[in-house]
Amino acid sequence: MSAMMHRHQPELLGENLAPGCHNIGYDSGTPEAHPALRKRISRKGYGPLAATSVRFNFEEVSNSPGVGDYELAARKQSKPKQSAKPFGSGTDERTKDHSLAYPGVGTYIFKTRKDIRHHSFGGTIKIMPAARTICKTENFDRCQRCDERPEVDYWKNLRTERCLCRRCMVKELEEARCHSKSKSEQTQRTETLKEYKRVRHCAYYHRHDKTSAAIQFISNKQLKRKFRLENYLSMFE
């Protein structure tokens, strides 16, 4: 026992309570006769930090209820406030034009380069002109579809003398490609249009003044440069 215990229990001095030395004459029926129980030890124990409160107080009610003890009050659900539509996003998407201002890379129609050279093996190489020039005093050709006189390049069947202006030629090709009833009809209409050749009247570089004479008002150098540029661009049509 410590010195503090001997100081608080002086009646135990002289008693032989060491380990192995038991009091055989102890009667369990009268526990109060035991020298260790003659004076009750304080419940606070020994030491300055002994607790004085009750260890387990089951009657104490917590200020915060448990998870399952909450009562959910029935609240009226209000409709969410509809946010404003920024930057005109409230318009119908189906009415918008989603086509791009400039087509993408894969949308271009690839055209092979045509060979505009006309020659035989070992012969002189000649460049086929992009448009044939018809030299006449007056141009009386009219379009077979719109019955108008073409002012610039137009298409002419040199065998049948039938003509088509540039706008009507585009329409004929579109109808043959999209409005043909069968594949054979489309091929037949396309082959018929291939017989038309691009021609132009000679008024772009000389004038006749209602005579057979030709008065040229463009130099040969400018004329050759014009033909060279047109022939080069005609390879990619």
From TrEMBL:
Highest taxon of source: Eukaryota
Region of interest called Disordered, as start-end residue ranges on this chain:
73-98
Q: Which GO terms describe its molecular function?
A: cytoskeletal protein binding
Task: Supply the InterPro entries for this chain.
Answer: CIMAP3
Q: Which GO terms describe its biological process?
A: regulation of cell projection organization
Q: What is this protein called?
A: Uncharacterized protein
